[in-house]
Amino acid sequence: MTTGDLTDAPLTFIANRDDNGAASMKIYLDDGISTTQDTEWYEFILSGNSLKKWDVQSSPNSQKGHLDKLVITNAGDLNETNFACMTAFSDWTHSDLKYEYDNVTMTLSISLDSGEPIELNELRDIHFGNDKKDINMCKLDM
Known about the structure:
Immunoglobulin-like, 1 helix, ten-stranded mixed β-sheet
C-alpha cells in the first residue's frame, strides 16, 4: 500500500490514551506518486474529551484524508458517554456523531451517523462526554 492508496481509503485513528487521558498523533498525506505536489500534514491532540486538529500544512481544496472513525483506548472512564459531535472547519457548525462504548475492550468509537467518512480538511475538532458531568461542547451557541 502506498500513500496514494491512502488518499482514497478511509482511515481509522486509534488514540491510545496515557494515564492522564491524553494522546497525540500526526498524519502526512501526499499522492504517493509525484515529487511535486500538494502535501498535507496534520497534528491531532486528544485531551479533555476533545480531539483537536491543527493544519500544519494543507490545501484549501484538499480531497485527501477521510476519517472512518476515531477509536479511543483505555476508555473505562468514558463508558457513560452520551454525546459526541464534530465542529466543521469552514463554518464552525456542529454535527452530531455516533458513539459506541465497548465494555469488553474498554474502547469508545466515534464516527458519522451516516457511516460516511469525515473529510479531514473539513474537521476542526471532535467533542464527546457525558452531559451530567462534562460541558456539552456540542450544544454551545456560537
